[in-house]
């Protein structure tokens, strides 16, 4: 497989981008993450339903840890998290990254002291037939979660098929008129020039119903969150509207801390034809 | 189908709501959830709500003679003891009187965690029952004006039990849990969406009540008919609540929604500085 190389100048910085024309992109740069919004007098209200949902996940994990005599939060370390979600909702109603972000927020502080200690985050979204979906009194999303030691791969905490209703991550409501505060053009719009360059250079993702994406980040990123970095770079794939936040059903995020390198963001996307 | 028009606030006269100055109390959201079980019976549930309302923050205690509790809730001694015993055995409260002769005193504990796999309640005593700490630890709570929950709702009498069922009380409290005056002028319209003649409830809300959307809508209609909520037409600009439609001047870019506004509003919430720019445009 031959790779095309593009020298790009993005916001006064020259960056080398490589791609294989359809499924693999490597950006040679230090990975960026969306900054955590710092409040400057702006009132914010997190979606209460989402907070409730996170509270439930934290609770179940605390309860399981307590019975296994595991002290939480876990000691500072290098952890991995696997999340499998099954839902009868539609692709449009539930997307994987925002669901994963909500679940990781529930783990942050309560289970691992800082979510930057999560070095591997693998997730799958399975859709069950929604044919005659009844809106009764019991939710039908199901979550399987495993927290493990990334070095030894040993499971620390896990639960299977927790039935609940997932409320995915959404931006907080702001009052006081500072919409701008949540907006970081240099990061939020980073994907625009990259996207334009690679698509102009012939990068084209094959049409499919569902996709699997794998993002591997390398660089001085000890303190950066996987889900925030994913939020920054995944939009590169949304370029031609073939891949959307709603049809990524498998997401693998990995980070490696390397302090003295240029750093890289390695993005792979494939049709996910496992499901029928 | 009820006619919602009857409950819409249609004039701007003052004193249409009770601005309560009798203090506020908190109930943890976690007890209302699809994962967390219901209390074993309505008596225990109502007693717990009663204890939450009776909590004295200054002393971090509930100090109430059992005879007073019995009278307020119309319970006999063994009903009361049973319910208190259950709450204590499951880590909701902890007795703090040093000897039995002393008046009943209890500390409210942070509501226990629940493991749905082993059906076990796990004490959360190590998490201080304190609003700042609860927020830090993903333990949401609902803040209510004390006037909003009366003994009539909680007492064990046949009329009260018929009118104030477990479900109705849950829906009532959870509506407060979704009410943010400064952001929405009432209950979040994303949680409870009111159209000209229909109410829609978001799934996470009705799942937390453990009922269907239909059942929750019916309950909300009953609460409206009891005048515990009114329907107010409110205006938003760029997603931000700017005041009630009858009061604000019409201008470009306004989006209007109907919201539920509780009849009992806490004075502290109404006087909050967050509402300083809006209060003048609210029907209260």
Structural overview:
- The complex is a heterodimer of chains A (276) and B (284).
- By secondary structure, chain A is an alpha+beta fold.
- Chain A folds into 2 domains: 4-33 and 172-271, 60s Ribosomal Protein L30, Chain: A (2-Layer Sandwich), CATH 3.30.1330.70; 47-164, 60s Ribosomal Protein L30, Chain: A.
- Chain A is built from 5 helices and 12 strands.
- Chain A is globular and about 55 Å long.
- Chain B has one domain (4-281).
- In chain B, 32% of the residues lie in helices and 23% in strands.
- In chain B, the strands form 7 sheets. Chain B has a 3-stranded antiparallel sheet. In chain B, strands 14-13-15 form a 3-stranded antiparallel sheet.
- Chain B is of the alpha+beta class.
- Chain B is globular and about 65 Å long.
- Classes of the chains: A alpha+beta (276), B alpha+beta (284).
Features of the shown structure:
heterodimer; A: 276 residues; alpha+beta; 60s Ribosomal Protein L30, Chain: A; 10-stranded mixed β-sheet; 20% helix; B: alpha+beta; 11 helices; 16 strands; 23% strand; globular
Instruction: Give me the side-by-side strand order of the main sheet of chain A.
Output: 1-2-3-12-10-11-6-5-7-8
Low-confidence stretches of chain A: none
CATH class of the largest domain in chain A: Alpha Beta
Helical percentage of chain B? 25-40%
How many structural units, i.e. domains of chain A?
A: 2
Number of helices of chain A: 5
Please tell me the overall pLDDT of chain A: 89
Q: Please work out how many helical segments of chain B DSSP would assign.
A: 11
Mean pLDDT metric of chain B: 95
Form type of chain A: globular
Biggest protein-protein interface?
Answer: A-B, 37 and 45 residues
Spatial gap, N to C terminus of chain B: 28 Å
Count of strand segments of chain A: 12
What's the CATH superfamily of the largest domain in chain A, by name? Holliday junction resolvase RusA
How do the SSEs of chain A run, as a string of H and E? EEEEHEHEEEEHHEHEE
Please report the total strand number of chain B as a whole number.
16
What structural class results from the helix and strand content of chain B? alpha+beta
The shape of chain B is globular
Named CATH architecture of the largest domain in chain A:
2-Layer Sandwich
- Main sheet summary of chain A: 10 strands, mixed
Rg over CA atoms of chain B: 20 Å
């Amino acid at each position: 497989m031959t790779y095309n190389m593009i020298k790009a100048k993005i916001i006064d910085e020259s960056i080398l981008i490589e791609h294989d024309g359809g499924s693999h992109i490597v950006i040679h740069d230090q990975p960026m993450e969306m900054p955590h919004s710092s409040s400057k007098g702006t009132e914010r209200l997190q979606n209460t339903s989402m907070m409730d949902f996170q509270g439930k996940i934290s609770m179940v994990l605390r309860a399981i840890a307590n019975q296994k005599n595991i002290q939480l939060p876990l000691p500072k370390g290098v952890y991995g998290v696997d999340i499998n979600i099954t839902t009868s909702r539609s692709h449009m109603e539930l997307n994987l990254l925002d669901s994963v972000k909500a679940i990781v927020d529930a783990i942050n502080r309560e289970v691992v002291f800082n979510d930057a200690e999560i070095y591997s985050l693998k997730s799958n979204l399975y859709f069950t037939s929604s044919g005659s979906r009844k809106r009764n009194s019991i939710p039908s999303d199901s979550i399987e979660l495993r927290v493990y030691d990334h070095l030894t791969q040993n499971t620390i905490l896990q639960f299977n098929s927790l039935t609940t209703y997932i409320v995915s991550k959404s931006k907080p409501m702001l009052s006081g008129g500072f919409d701008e505060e949540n907006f970081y053009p240099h990061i939020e719009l980073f994907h625009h020039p990259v996207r334009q360059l690679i698509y102009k250079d012939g990068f084209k993702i094959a049409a499919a119903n569902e996709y699997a994406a794998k993002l591997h980040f390398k660089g001085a990123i000890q303190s950066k969150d996987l889900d925030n970095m994913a939020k920054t770079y995944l939009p590169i794939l949304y370029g031609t509207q073939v891949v959307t936040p709603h049809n990524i059903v498998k997401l693998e995020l990995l980070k490696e801390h390397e302090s003295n390198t240029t750093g890289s963001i390695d993005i792979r996307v494939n049709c996910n034809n496992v499901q029928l | 189908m009820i006619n919602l028009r009857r409950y819409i606030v249609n004039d701007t006269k003052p004193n249409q709501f009770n601005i309560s100055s009798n203090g506020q109390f908190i109930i943890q959201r976690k007890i209302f959830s699809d994962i967390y079980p219901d209390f074993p019976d309505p008596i225990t549930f109502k007693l717990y709500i009663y204890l939450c309302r009776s909590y004295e923050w200054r002393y971090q205690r509930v100090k109430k003679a059992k005879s007073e509790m019995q009278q307020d809730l119309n319970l006999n001694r063994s009903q009361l003891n049973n319910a208190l015993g259950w709450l204590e055995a499951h880590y909701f409260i902890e007795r703090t009187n040093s000897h039995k002769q002393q008046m009943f005193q209890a500390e409210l504990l942070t509501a226990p965690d629940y493991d749905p796999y082993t059906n076990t309640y796990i004490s959360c005593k190590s998490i201080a029952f304190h609003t700042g700490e609860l927020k830090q630890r993903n333990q949401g709570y609902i803040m209510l004006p004390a006037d909003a929950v009366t003994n009539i709702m909680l007492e064990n009498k046949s009329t009260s039990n018929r009118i104030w069922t477990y479900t109705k009380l849950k829906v009532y409290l959870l509506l407060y849990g979704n009410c943010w005056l400064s952001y929405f002028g009432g209950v979040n319209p994303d949680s409870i969406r009111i159209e000209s003649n229909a109410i829609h409830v978001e799934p996470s809300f009705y799942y937390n009540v453990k009922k269907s959307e239909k059942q929750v809508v019916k309950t909300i209609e009953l609460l409206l008919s009891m005048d515990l909520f009114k329907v107010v037409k409110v205006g938003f600009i760029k997603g931000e609540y700017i005041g009630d439609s009858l009061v604000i001047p019409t201008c470009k870019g306004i989006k209007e929604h109907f919201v539920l506004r509780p009849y009992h509003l806490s004075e502290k919430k109404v006087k909050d500085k967050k509402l300083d720019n809006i209060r003048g445009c609210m029907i209260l």
